[in-house]
Amino acid sequence: MKREQIQKILQQNRLRGLELLSDEGSVEGLAARLRGSAANQSLIQEIKAAADDLLQTPNPELTFALFRIYSDTGERLAYEHIYFERRKRLNAFVIMSLLEPEHTEYEAAACNIIWSICNEFTWCLPAHFNEGAERLDIDLFAAETGFALSEIVVLMGDRLPSLLRRRIEAELERRLFQPFLEQGPYGWETADHNWSAVCAGSLGAAALHLMDDSSRLSAVLVRVLTALDCYLEGFGDDGACAEGYLYWQYGFGYYVYFAQLLKSATAGAINLFASSKVKEIALFQQKCFTSGSMVVNFSDSPASSGIFMGLSCCLHGEYDEVTVPDISLRADYSADHCGRWSPAIRNLLWVKDSWLEASAGKALWPSESYYMSDVQWLLSRHVNEAGTSYSFAAKGGHNAEPHNHNDVGQFILHADGQAYLADLGSGKYTAQYFGSERYTLWCNGSQGHSVPIIDGLYEQNGTAYRAEVIEAEATKESDQLVLELSSAYELSTLERLVRSFRWEKEELPRLMLTDTICFAANNEESAKRTVTERFITFLAPVLEEEGRIVIEGKRKLVLTYDHIVWRAEATPRSDIDHFGGERFWYTLDFHSTATAGVPLIASFIFQFVS
Question: How far apart are CA 218 and CA 5, in angstroms?
Answer without folding.
Answer: 9
